[in-house]
Design brief:
This is Transcriptional regulator. One of its GO terms (molecular function) is DNA binding. One of its GO terms (biological process) is phosphorelay signal transduction system. This protein has about 240 residues and is α/β, with parallel strands linked by helices. It folds into two domains: about 15-125, Response regulator (Rossmann fold), CATH 3.40.50; about 140-240, Arc Repressor Mutant, subunit A. The protein has helices at about 30-35, 50, 55-60, 70-80, 115-125, 150-160, 165-175, 180-200, 235-240, and strands at about 15-20, 40-45, 65, 85-90, 100, 105-110, 140, 210, 215-220, 225. The protein has a six-stranded mixed sheet, covered by helices on one side. It has a two-stranded parallel ribbon with strand order 7-10. Strand 8 and strand 9 form a beta hairpin. The protein is rod-shaped, with a radius of gyration of 34 Å.
């Protein structure tokens, strides 16, 4: 049994396994190499009885290729043992019918000398490509009346991740360690009240600063995307610039 491993961007790696049933492993060398070039995991086996009776082994594969070295009787015997989830290909030489019917299943055929490009198209139809949906950009909300100091207070609160922060700690974040608590605590109270008034004036109801008595302040809501035209830039890159 031969095996190789690989990856294809966008395709479910756990389902990229292909099994070739054959009576002559050397006969499958070309298609095996082409499958490997396409970065699929491929197994080639002559042990038909082992695979056809072991469901847990067959479930490991998504695509099963029946070699032209198998007799029609052998192929017709094996196909009914495969579950509906298996994609089956029958490899044949010479003039092909596009599909053949075995039992209740209609099965696609491929030429024994199938080219690499044709093989690529056949296999990609069996392996769904994952589509990545781009996230919608966050809406940028303008708060025309916010100034740099307002932004720094909001930034200090936002850093707490929804938890309350004491007034003195918030003063330290806004003005640094060289501040006089007595003067800045009073100024902080004025700024917090002013920010809430500005939000209310702009009809912003999902963002506000809550006063937690005996503790300090807590930011309620998400400030991502805040834009303050009076201090050009976004909340993230503005908030902790030196206030002048």
């Amino acid at each position: 049994m031969a095996r190789t491993e690989g990856r294809v961007n966008g395709i479910d790696e756990s389902m990229k396994r292909i099994l070739i049933f054959t009576q002559n492993i050397l006969n499958e060398k070309e298609i095996q190499q082409n499958i490997q070039r396409l970065n699929y995991e491929v197994f080639v086996s002559e042990s038909l009885s082992d695979f056809s009776t072991a469901k847990e082994i067959l479930d490991y594969f998504s695509v099963i290729i029946m070699s032209e070295t198998l007799s029609n009787a052998t192929t017709e015997q094996l196909v009914p043992k495969l579950i509906e989830d298996h994609h089956i290909l029958i490899k044949k030489e010479g003039k092909l019918e596009e599909r053949v019917v075995i039992g209740h299943r209609t099965i696609r055929t491929i030429d024994a000398k199938i080219s690499l490009e044709e093989l690529r198209e056949v296999l990609i139809s069996f392996f769904p490509v994952k589509t990545v949906v781009a996230e919608e950009p966050k809406a940028r909300r303008e708060f025309p009346s916010l100034n740099r100091l307002d932004m720094k207070v909001l930034a200090g609160l936002e850093m707490q991740n929804g938890h309350a922060v004491s007034r003195s700690d918030l003063c330290g974040l806004v003005w640094g360690s060289d501040y006089k608590i007595s003067s800045k605590l009073s100024q902080l109270s004025i700024i917090v009240k002013r920010i809430n008034q500005k939000f209310a004036a702009e009809n912003i109801q999902d963002v506000y600063i809550d006063t937690i008595w005996g503790v300090g302040y807590k930011l309620v809501g998400n400030v991502d995307g805040i834009v303050a035209p009076t201090a050009p830039g976004t909340f993230e890159n503005l908030a902790f610039e030196e206030f002048e």
